[in-house]
Specification:
By secondary structure, the chain is of the alpha/beta class. The protein has ten helices and eight strands. The chain is 37% helix and 15% strand. Strands 1-2-3-4-5-6-7-8 form an eight-stranded parallel barrel, surrounded by five helices. Bound molecules: phosphoenolpyruvate. The site of phosphoenolpyruvate (PEP) has 14 residues, from strand 8.
């Protein structure tokens, strides 16, 4: 039985339990306040019976409040899909860490592939977002991953290094609040999942990069993301260097997300 340590679990800062898998649902621009609350409520029925899996969900900003309302006091963690580095000001369309926390969020996704490739966010901007999230007491899922073009050019590891090099030297104190997500761009929302070997190698490379900066600190958990579904998750979560999944499409279905949680439990 999962023990809920506080009635306000969803606001807890950090608290990554290394022995737990993390199943993080990125709802992207789906589910308004009403529909989001319905799915979140259904997941509150699932979460308490999980022994080795934490369920995290990142609704659209406007849906956060209704989801936080139904998940407060449950083991589910609620987060935002992006975060700004300033506390307030003339930044149309953005939200700050204190706003996210006040709304019941305890984590933020930063550097998602759609932010990088659809909205043109660069490594500097993503670095600022991540450092603000960490110092603003939000657990940070820092997403990295190569395009198909980079993979085919044999540049996967160089790209991962490039994406990580801005934050690796800066995060020793806050490392316990950091989570990496390896999400190959070509696997996100395409139905094309990376092979077990590709995932293992990429996660291994991330671990090595971490160790080269922080030889005495454990590498943060590394999630895999990219077309995860109940048919392909078993082999992925069985890998020793995979600590869970960042899930887009399948996280919108209660049935699929529950099945992913069951697979994680059986891993
Ligand atoms: C994601 O949004 O991070 C993602 C991996 O999406 P999908 O699972 O739909 O590929």
């Amino acid at each position: 039985m999962h023990v809920v340590s506080s009635a306000n679990h969803s606001r807890k800062y950090g608290g990554i339990t290394k022995t737990m898998n993390i199943l993080a649902g990125n709802w992207k621009m789906n589910l308004g306040p009403e529909q989001g609350a319905v799915l979140a409520r259904a997941l509150t029925e699932v979460a308490p019976s999980l022994n080795k899996t934490e369920l995290w969900i990142a609704p659209p900003f406007l849906t956060v409040a209704s989801v936080a309302e139904v998940t407060t006091g449950t083991p589910l963690r609620v987060g935002v899909q992006n975060i700004h580095w300033e506390e307030s000001g003339a930044f149309t369309g953005e939200i700050s860490t204190s706003m996210a926390r006040e709304s019941g969020c305890s984590f933020a996704i930063v550097g998602h592939s759609e932010r990088r490739h659809v909205f043109g966010e660069d490594d500097n901007m993503i670095r600022s977002r991540a450092l603000a999230a960490l110092s603003g007491e939000l657990t940070t899922i820092f997403c990295i991953g190569e395009t198909l073009e980079s993979r085919e050019a044999g540049e996967t590891f160089r790209i991962l290094e490039e994406q990580l090099k801005g934050i690796l030297p800066e995060v020793s104190d806050s490392a316990r609040h950091l989570v990496f997500a390896y999400e190959p761009v070509w696997a996100i929302g395409t139905g094309k999942v990376a092979s077990i070997k590709e995932i293992e190698e990429a996660h291994g490379a991330i671990t090595e990069l971490w160790k080269s900066h922080h030889p005495t600190l454990d590498c943060p958990p590394i999630l895999y993301g990219g077309s995860v579904n109940p048919d392909n998750f078993e082999g992925i979560i069985a890998l020793p260097n995979v600590s869970g999944g960042l899930v887009g499409g399948a996280s919108l279905s209660e049935e699929k997300f529950r099945k992913l949680a069951e697979i994680s439990e059986a891993s």
